[in-house]
């Protein structure tokens, strides 16, 4: 079956190549489906581009990825679903049924499916689940509203995606400040209610498959990456296996990655440095041990020539200006290369239903608090207002306020490690 895989993401701060669609294309073509990627990131007229692609390719179905519901920021919030819904409606008018998926879709599959008006959906990994749906379409379409659980179907950890770059213009992304990405794993063992990517489950890829993918991209002149794992250090044994294989391969790449505060050890950072990692971003929500780990991670990163960015998230229940002030004073002593500050927590899952919040807690809710079942529209929780946070930060240039500065950590840091 012909499948049009659509990237509707037009957010340019920075522009992010649609890695998931390249992975889907690689998996689907192995099973005999013909795929074309329609990348709308830089399209001058998205609807004209959509119509032209449908007329030229004549797909039997379109897959549209919802990478994010919104940009996750309270200040300068951008909500993306209305744009994606309009694309879905145009496809329906052109007679093309739509399957929705992606990380943003998966946090509330039923709610997002209904909001977009798509016919079917895939929650979680799509490589096998979407192939099953396409095979089923050839025997008769599933009922409208069917959502497949991609975690039940899983993903092939040995599949290498050597065709990456054939249907994407990477040069435009790189010229406009973007980076290529790759995955070593899918999912996250965490279940944080403020994170869209928390799943409680992880699928690890085979290192040799990842290396075949990176070697193919190197053949197309791509050597700089940002890892697209939720947080790399879910399992240190796996991390060491991959890093050792990357070092042994002789590939000379530069890459940035996210880490959580544990686990880690000196050998892990030694291998990171030898593998070409040049920037680690540490996710640091307020908590009892995070700053202690941040100090140790800074020391290990510096020893191995790796820059450190910290994403500091506060405003949780129990956070006070005094506590945040102590944290920021400690971060000044640790002195990462940059610290992003955010005190508004986007709620996704596991939180108390908004209507059940007691009055003393409702004053800490911001955004679309009323008539917003499933938290499709952005709702934020904060006990620390942005002006309070600014006063605590005191104008120190170490601190950057997320949502006000439209840059990512790797864009902020272009110099050598300290």
TrEMBL record:
It comes from the Bacteria. SUPFAM superfamilies: Radical SAM enzymes (SSF102114). Pfam families: B12-binding, Radical_SAM. One of its GO terms (cellular component) is cytosol. The keyword Disulfide bond does not apply. Residues 174-377 form the Radical SAM core domain. Its cofactor is [4Fe-4S] cluster. Keywords: Iron, Iron-sulfur, Metal-binding, S-adenosyl-L-methionine. SMART domains: Elp3. Residues 1-144 form the B12-binding domain. One of its GO terms (molecular function) is 4 iron, 4 sulfur cluster binding. PANTHER family: ANAEROBIC MAGNESIUM-PROTOPORPHYRIN IX MONOMETHYL ESTER CYCLASE-RELATED, SLR0320 PROTEIN. This is Uncharacterized protein. It comes from Candidatus Glassbacteria bacterium RIFCSPLOWO2_12_FULL_58_11.
């Amino acid at each position: 079956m012909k499948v049009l895989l659509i990237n509707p993401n037009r957010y340019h701060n920075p522009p992010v190549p649609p890695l998931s669609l390249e992975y889907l294309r690689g998996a689907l073509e192995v099973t005999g489906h013909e795929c074309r990627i329609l990348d709308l990131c830089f399209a001058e007229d998205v609807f004209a581009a959509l119509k032209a692609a449908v007329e030229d390719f004549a797909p039997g179905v379109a897959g549209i990825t919802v990478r994010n519901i919104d940009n996750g920021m309270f200040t300068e919030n951008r909500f993306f679903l209305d744009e994606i819904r309009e694309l879905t409606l145009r496809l329906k008018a052109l007679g093309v049924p739509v399957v929705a998926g992606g990380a943003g879709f998966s946090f509330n599959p039923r709610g997002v499916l209904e909001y977009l008006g798509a016919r079917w959906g895939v929650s979680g990994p799509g490589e096998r689940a979407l192939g099953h749906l396409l095979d089923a379409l050839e025997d008769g379409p599933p009922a409208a509203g069917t959502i497949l659980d991609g975690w039940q179907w899983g993903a092939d950890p040995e599949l290498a995606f050597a065709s990456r770059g054939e249907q994407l213009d990477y040069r435009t992304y790189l010229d406009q400040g973007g980076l290529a990405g790759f995955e070593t794993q899918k999912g996250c063992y965490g279940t944080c209610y403020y994170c869209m990517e928390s799943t409680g489950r992880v699928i690890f890829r085979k290192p040799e498959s990842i290396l075949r993918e990176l070697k193919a991209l190197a053949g197309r002149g791509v050597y700089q990456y940002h890892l697209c794992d939720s947080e790399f250090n879910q399992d240190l044994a796996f991390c060491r296996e991959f890093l050792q294989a990357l070092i042994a391969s002789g590939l000379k790449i530069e890459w940035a990655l996210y880490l959580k505060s544990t686990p880690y050890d000196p050998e892990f950072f030694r291998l990171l440095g030898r593998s070409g990692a040049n920037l680690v971003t540490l996710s640091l929500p307020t908590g009892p041990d995070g700053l202690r780990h941040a100090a140790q991670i800074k020391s290990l990163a510096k020893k191995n020539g790796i820059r450190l960015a910290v994403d500091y998230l506060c405003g949780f229940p129990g956070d006070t200006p005094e506590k945040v002030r102590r944290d920021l004073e400690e971060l000044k002593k640790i002195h990462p290369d940059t610290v992003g500050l955010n005190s508004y927590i986007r709620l996704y899952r596991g939180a108390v239903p908004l209507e059940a919040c007691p009055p003393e807690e409702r004053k800490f809710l911001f955004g679309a608090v009323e008539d917003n079942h499933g938290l499709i529209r952005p709702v934020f929780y904060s006990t620390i207002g942005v002006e309070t946070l600014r006063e605590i930060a005191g104008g120190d240039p170490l601190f950057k306020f997320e949502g006000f500065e439209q840059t990512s950590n790797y864009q902020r840091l272009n110099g050598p490690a300290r």
